[in-house]
Amino acid sequence: MTSVANGTGVARRTVLWAGLLVTGCAGAGGGRPGPSGTPTGTREAVQAPAQVPLPGPALWQPGPDELQPDVKRRAVEVVAAVAAWPVGGQGVEAARRRVVVLGLPGGLVEQAQGLITGEPEATVEVVDAQYGGLLDDSASVLVVCRRWTRGPDGSVVEGGTTVDVRLSRAEPRWTVTELHPGAPGAAAATPAPAVARVLAEPRIELPPEAVADLRSGAVHDSVLEAMLRLAGPYAFSVSVVRSGHPLDVFGTTRPSDHPLGRAFDVWRIDGHPVVDRATSRGLIEQFMRDAAAAGSYNVGGPLAVQGGVGNQFFTDDTHHDHVHVGFKS
């Protein structure tokens, strides 16, 4: 036992002494200068490149001209709680806690697990929150988002989604009852030629989910051609094309043209939000008339437009904040 212990002690002292020698050689000026002037034997610390921070936009807020501002605020809050999180805040349980803090049912996260991914952090920018339907005691708000997540290699991955948030009247605030994230589907192998033209047109602004809708091949040519025609006299921002919109016209059992790929909504014209009372009523009316001239049989907006064929033009509370452009085929 003595010889083994002594042998171990000698070995340990030898390693320590060798370490001291290496340390001494690596000290400042301790090595013979190399060709670049850096002493040989010196090891310089290499720092990993700093990660580019994710964009951190402020949370969207309703303006003064909203009919039911808290309805939209509530919808935006729950989407942000589910789809965005700080470093380490990923996972279903963390999302559930964030939703409960808002005074909403934690079970809502089960309806949006496609948004609750495993990335270590995520941020969201709400492009627009528009009504999919607004009745006295219930509502649908379409929360149109851009989204950034941290990739496995530390990169910033950009995407987006549109979530149909269903709400019902409650006190002291409206409550959220359902979440329906959009699902545009995979890109088509051979999309229609008009798709590329729309995507390349700088006067047409499309959110990520609408871009995916076009690339899926599920949007009718009538929609694409009307967009291109309207992009002549106007620059406009689309909120919803197909995905993320209610399947039926809200409050009815009548199928909506949106999920069928036969409609699009516009929330901003020539840089002016439709919901803003300061936006020229003449501008909105002319856009609606030009949409009808581009082939739309069903044009809705915040004002009553006279003329048209049958009930070609309409207005209601749901369309207080956007122009709907629908087609029969």
Written overview of the protein:
The chain has 329 residues and is α+β, with helices and mostly antiparallel strands. It contains 7 helices and 11 strands. The strands form 2 sheets. Strands 5, 6, 7, 8, 9, 10 and 11 form a 7-stranded mixed β-sheet that branches. The longest helix has 25 residues, at 2-26.
Choose one word for the global shape: globular
Distance between the first and last residues' Cα? 93 Å
Order of helices and strands: HHHEEEEHEHHEEEHEEE
Report the C-alpha radius of gyration, rounded: 29 Å
Q: How large a portion of the residues is in β-strands, by DSSP E?
A: 15-25%
Could you name the ranges where pLDDT drops below 50 across 5 or more consecutive residues? 1-42
Structural class: alpha+beta
State the total count of DSSP E strands.
11
Number of helices: 7
Name the average pLDDT: 88
The largest sheet is: 7 strands, mixed
Helical content, roughly?
25-40%
